[in-house]
Amino acid sequence: MHGDVAVSTGVQLQSHEQIGVETVARDESSSISMSSRQELVGRVAAGLAHDLNGPIGVMLGFTQLAREKLEADDSATSSVVEYLKMIESAGENARSLARDMWDFANSSAGKVGEFDLTELLETTGRLVAPTLRVASIEPPADGELASRMMTGDRARWAEALVGLMIEAPTALPGGGSLTWGLKQGVGGKTVTIVFVASPNDAETSVITPVPAQDWEFQDESVAIINGLGGTIGPLSGLDDDKRGIEVSVPTDSSRS
After folding, report:
1. Beta-carbon contacts of residue 126 (< 8 Å; ≥ 6 apart)
2. Which is more confidently placed, 126 or 53?
3. Is 250 helix (H, G, I), strand (E, B) or coil?
4. What are phi and psi of 74, to 5 degrees?
5. At which of 79, 106, 133 does a domain end?
6. Do 35 and 101 have their domain in common?
7. DSSP class of residue 35?
8. I want to staple 171 with a disulfide (CB 3.0 to 4.6 A). Which of 1, 24, 176, 243 is the partner?
9. Which residue, among 219, 214, 235, 209, has the nearest Cα to 171 in the 3D structure?
């Protein structure tokens, strides 16, 4: 009987030790993830702060012009209306940037649900563009913008996409543009995200174009993609002056 008690106690102690180890590992993993998110938020916020200053300046400038027009000529209604439209547009742009930043900074991992990958890529592109030395982050002009519904942790997806886009300048040391596209896998169980970095066009840029370099993505981004059950690697078949990566993931990453 005493032997049984000893064995039982030993199992309980071992179980508690395992729980302790698992808890520490989980806490460390959570700490690493939080640190990575804070770093991304900081880098994105720096670019957004600069970009938000533009719309705010436009709003203030046209508000002053509208006031001066009204003070000088009560009949200048049409001019004032145009100024107000520009103010409204700038305000909507600033609000959109601020909302995207707020959603990303305050989202927390662990909530699994259905989301539109196309919409998330568009939102992430708007969020990251001010941080990069690129002209734009957008789908190709002839790209298909159909919804791609996914099941998984949207916050983890957002973190992975922000990380990958922020690392795009390693492929564009002289600036340029970044395009993305989506390819549905056979049977609809996988989807591949393609990113292509294109340097500045020699004919349209006053800056001497610099050839694209290898796209260096960090271990953290690879770890998140792998955690979603996906793979990441270089994109082949591109022109010599371009670089790209492709990320293949299951459309349902809820069990990853």
Report:
1. 96, 97, 100, 137
2. 126
3. strand
4. -65, -20
5. 106
6. yes
7. H
8. 243
9. 214
